[in-house]
Amino acid sequence: MRILPRNATTYAVQAAAAPRRQFPTALLFVLPYLILFVLFRLGPSLAGLAIGFTNWQAVGTPQWIGFRNFEAMGRDPRLGEAFRNTVGFTGVIVPLLVVLSLALAIFLNRPYRGRALGRVAVFMPFVVMSTVVGVLWTWILDKDFGLLNVYLSGVGIANIPWLVSERYAMWGVILTTVWWTVGYNMVLFLAGLQDIPGELYEAARIDGAGAVGLFRFVTLPMLAPTTFLVIMLTIINSFQIFDQVYVMTSGGPGTATLTLVQYIYTTSFQFQKFGYGSAVTVILFLMLVFVAFFQIRAYRRGLQGVE
Amino acid sequence: MSIRVNRLIWYALLTVIVVLALAPIAWMLTTALRPETEIVTTDIHWIPRQFTVTHFEAILSDYPILRWLFNSLFVSAAATLLVLVLDSLAGYAFARMEFRGRNILFMVILSMLFVPMQVTVVPLFILFSRLQLTDTYWALILPVGANVTGVFLMRQFFLSIPSELEDAARVDGANALRILVSVVLPLARPALTAVAILTFLSTWNSFFWPLIATRSDEVRTLPVGIAQFLSLRAGMVQGQQSIGQSMAGAVFAALPPIIFFVILQRYFIEGISRTGLKG
Prior knowledge:
The complex is a heterodimer.
Chain A: H1 3-17, H2 23-51, H3 68-73, H4 77-107, H5 115-127, H6 130-140, H7 147-154, H8 169-194, H9 198-206, H10 211-222, H11 224-239, H12 243-248, H13 260-269, H14 274-306
Helix pairs in contact in A: 2-14, 4-8, 4-11, 4-13, 5-8, 6-8, 8-11, 9-10, 11-14, 13-14
Chain B: H1 2-32, H2 54-62, H3 65-96, H4 102-111, H5 117-130, H6 137-145, H7 149-160, H8 164-171, H9 176-187, H10 189-205, H11 208-213, H12 222-229, H13 243-275
């Protein structure tokens, strides 16, 4: 009785150890996905990058014009505005979201009853779709009758023209986006916090660390990978901000909330300038590659510092 | 004593946080339920003095919002199903099978994570126009099937489970598909749940491509319908509707996922913390 399973195991181990070339089977497994991937992801990506080097305008045949689209960008003040707005939005929202979601995660990680309720409440806005969030906050940020301004006037701050003035419009969008996404980032931080072994805190406490010391020398370094992830995801998503802006301001007033993707949308699909619009997506692509490269390097260096 | 004070402060802060997080959603609901005269006023009261469902009736009769809702649900469900099937198969092959070019192919797939989807939008639009499939469900579903994160997550999960069971099944003469379906996938339920939730949420939320790919109410999804017809921004051509109607539409679109989330919140939060990636 004991011999049989042992034989079977040995056989299985041998079978597993022998390199199996499974080309036909593997192909059948990969092919369905691969067809869609090539048709709807890889192909369109390469084509999109290529169209950026043409003067295509929806009708007619596209002509290869080299870097001329990119040269034209230097003489395009609206694009400059869109670029500045996008980077500015990202520059404000990344630190804001990281600090706020980390604080919320630490707070809602304390072992009190009711923390589950807190987590559910903070995450809930994220399950509401972005355009609905936009419609809702357009109402809340209404200059005259919006909930926020009515309450603010109660403490002596009168009628801030949130979405209708160049000065405040982007802040309205930022406020909306923070409310919408802070729960998502908090959940990422909570997962990171729960992965920190409790012994580390005990050891630090025995060494005489106070609450601040524990945070600085245990929590923060141990959370570095999560923080890296949150920053990375927030930058990627912020560079592509579109939905809220489309619904709340359509880029206005003036160009105050014009973002890169909003600009891409109008250029390609309202003015039918496929070539130039695609060239701007190439810029967006390069921005993402740059950030990824920079972050991975910073991350590697950070890890070496820890070791 | 100090522990009690700590706890008191904690609960006070918790209350503030919960109120700030939920107040906008509550405000949307109570705005939708009151007459317009009670909306356009600086006299804020949270409970309407007079309840009314006229905004909901108006929304239902003036806009095909139920159709948009159905379209969103159908597209999200179909896309999720497609992704689960394709990505289980492909992820399993990348994790367990050896074939020529496997690693290079996988790197090519992963590299697409760096290419923003906006790059693909003009070619996709042309492609679907040529196929005469713009403004169809196909245009909304098929591109989701090409997503990268699902394949990556499934592969990583398959790599993390021991292969002894599969070897045993192979000794018993089961073929690869049989092994995947009856041995591996039952073990992969956490990964499947995570991929399903991420795919469903991101498709449900998806706006940029559906805005471009749809024209008719038969296909138009909820985010697009809401944005095009119920937006309150200044200068909207269609901005005839009242604030009450916009909020009623917003409630329609917000409630299904909120109810889902409250019931399934554990899976939502697990799924996201497991992966840390939006579809």
